[in-house]
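_Per-residue structure_
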Amino acid sequence: FGNVLGSTGSVIPKFQAQIAHGGPVTVTHPEINRYFMSIPEAAQLVLQAAAMGQGGEIFVLDMGAPVKIVDLARNMIRLSGFTEDEIHIEFTGLRPGEKLYEELLADAEETLPTPHEKLRIARSRAVPEAFYEGVLAWLARGPQEDVDVRAGLKQWVPEYEPRG
């Protein structure tokens, strides 16, 4: 699921530390957004999913609406008693592979409902019979050139979009 506010790796403590040191607050891109939930909310949904799971399901948690990270940074600066003239926001650029938007399997076409309104079960696509044998044979060939690895990943993972 998305980002859990205040957890290890959460952007909140990072922003707090940057503000406490006088800035700048670093954001990768002005349009980047992410989903957030609190630790209690995340824990409750994980426990609910564990209680209703039969085995093998992939549960998708309703994370609510995405939040623009730059807006979160601005609000944290303001709520800390500063202005953006005092604590600047610096855009550092997307890291390799980082996306502007998180993709959730939240719509009804890709998930199945559960008794809990904030939990859905991901509907997996059918795996062709020869898939596992094919992947194992591809892996058994050993080290390959980057272009071959990218082509293989695209073959085995249709959502993979090679860059460069």
